[in-house]
Amino acid sequence: MCIRDRPHSVAQTVQSQVARPIELARSQHAKAVEQRASAIKQTTPAATTSREKSSSPSAIDSFFSKLKTQFQEHWMTWIGGVALAFGGIFLAKYSLDAGLLSPSLRLTFGGLFGVALIAGAEYLHRKGIVFEGFNNYVPAALAGGGFISCFALTLLAYSSYAMLSATTAFVMLAVIALAASSMALRLGPLLAVLGIVGAYSVPIWVNTGSGNLVALLMYIGFVTLSAVLVAQKVKRPWLWYLLWAGHIGWYWLALSVIKPTQYWLVGGFALLSIIGLIAMMRLGVTLRLLEYRPHSLPRLLKLQPDHPLLLAIVVPLLLTILISVASVQWQIVMVCLIVMLLFLVLQNSRWDLWQGLALLSAVLLVVSQQAYHIDSNDHLFVFKNMYGFGLLLGIGLCLYGLYFGARYYKRLSFHLLAAFSVFTLIATLYTLTPAQDLAVAYSLWTVLLLLSSGVLIKRAQHAHTQWQQFSYWLGANANITLCLTMLLADSGLTLALAIQVLAISYLVKRHKVPMPHWPIKALVAVVLARLTFAPWTYDADLTFLALHWSIVVYPVAVGLFWFAAKQWQQTDMKIWLEGAALHCLALFITTETSYQLVGHYPQLSSLSFYEQILLSCNWLALGCVYLYRAQSAGQLGKLYRTAGLTLSALAGLLLINTALHENPLLMRLYVGEIPLFNWLLLTWLVPSMLTLWLAKLVKPLNAKFSQIVLGASGLLAVLAINALIRQYWQGAFIYLDKATSDAELYSYSIIWLLLGALVVITGHLKQQLLLQKVGLGMLGAVIVKVFLIDMASLTGLLRAVSFIGLGLSLVGLSWLFQKLRSKAPAG
Q1: What ranges does the record list as Polar residues composition bias (predicted)?
Q2: Is this model's pTM higher than 0.85 or not?
């Protein structure tokens, strides 16, 4: 058995020995392949990134780099072309100076020379002798020299010889420039530069003196159309920059010299400019549909150069309309602009933001018509002039947004336009309408707003996305809020906006919409701005619900912001809204205390003694609250600290002014007759306690400044206690010129002795050395006062005993201080 198995085992051993190197080789080969693949994976992103970086430089850098490369390779060719051009010009000039030929012959030969260069360039290009396509630099250089020669000679014939009329020279120069642009389609982009620049500069070189704006704009439009065709064919981005600069420059010039009879001309030119410069560039000559898929807001904002071009055309037009006399021509132009923007949005979804510009244009159209007189006796005025325009535009834009929002439900801009168009236009009309006419318009506007809210709520119930539902709910809420605003007037508008903040916060929480915070912050900022400046801009006698407005509006705003903050748990929006509520509370305390005291809001230039006292306490308390809030405000901490320190500094200035100029100890001021509960309590005692809190709050910011504030708190406490003691004895007037009784002098000593002992005991119990020092200092001061002032009338042996007692007391206090200090912990 063993003999039989032996050959087999030997064979297996040999086979395993032979297979082992093969398997080892295979494993090594597999490892090498894996290493190579991992190396490729590691290097591919870097290579791709570098390739992407290298392939995506800015258009300007690409242009200059290509121009540099072409100049380095073909500089001799182009210098030769320029030399030929100058040669033709110098030949004409030499013949002029030397008098060799008549002016007409000189110009003729110069023109023939330029034409010969152009013809030679065309011949070389057609034969393909040098290069093909756009790299045909030699023919392009010859043609450039020829066109420059023809351009210069035409100007020479017009300006120096007067052989051509202005109109003839204008036409000839335009033909030469356009011919250069046309030839650039075959010879290259640099020749197109010559043609475009030359064509746009013709009106500068030749002024016919007719002031014919129609002819000028027609010429510029024709040149732009030709330049657009050339730029599309040549495929060079910087050619677009040239034609944009030339076209918009002449357009702005036309707007600056426009006359009332030419409104339709410049307005039509602006609309055609949008089509030619933007729409045709993206959509082609036929304005075909490009795309309709939705895009995010950052992607919509980053679209270049469409948005800057549109703003460069539309913004100057809108400004001109606003400062010009209202006319039917402008109305037609504005309506056409709105229709054009809405049409272009349908052709390219990257232009969705233009719906907002269309809505803004509608608002400005209404505003520009407010110069028309309103007959208050005609109750149908709500359907005429700007009122009719506003209602038609609002309803039309709403229907447009609803229809195309249902068709392209993922494009949020349609839903936003549907939700806010009626609200925006009626709000504009409400703002422009005189108060005496609002009663007539209110009923109609309310019906339209409520009907619009009903439609929006219905659409919200069948919404496809959360954002769509949120937009419709928000628009419906805005319409209802505007109805309440028109009913409640000025204060109602502020509260309506604050209610809007709460409603938005509630809807965001309920529907869990990932809404960005900046729209709510902007709305909160508007409300706070109105509430901040309202006391000094509105009528002081304005009432709300039969009460003075500030006593109602500020507390309600505080409550609305507070409840809105509850909807934003664990977000920075919660801190923002709580800060808004705190600011409203600060405004309420600041304004209402002064109003209830003196009958008007505080005027900082003429504050009374009592207003200064109230404001110093209010501002100091609010400053401490802001500083305390800054400890947990996150990113808003710096803002809270700035506000808190500012309010504290203002309160400090008021306290200093009170001590120096409005001090009841130095002048006759009524402080109240009731002991303790009088104006002195707010003058120094409350500020002393608040300043003590302030010192604790600013200690983490600046320890030295905290010590200064702590010293100010002690000084205020001393003034407060002494003033309260004096008021007890003196009554309503405590100025120092009044006689001081012995009982009053003794009461100072007794009270300060008790306070000093209390401070020493407190410092010992809390093991605070600073309090012990302060208490002992107080006791020492009381002892000195007792022996030097209270016993000043003593003589003889009593005086000697009093001074001995003073010395023993001071020694005893020193021993007590040392003993307490020795028992204090070493830390």
Answers
A1: 40-49
A2: no
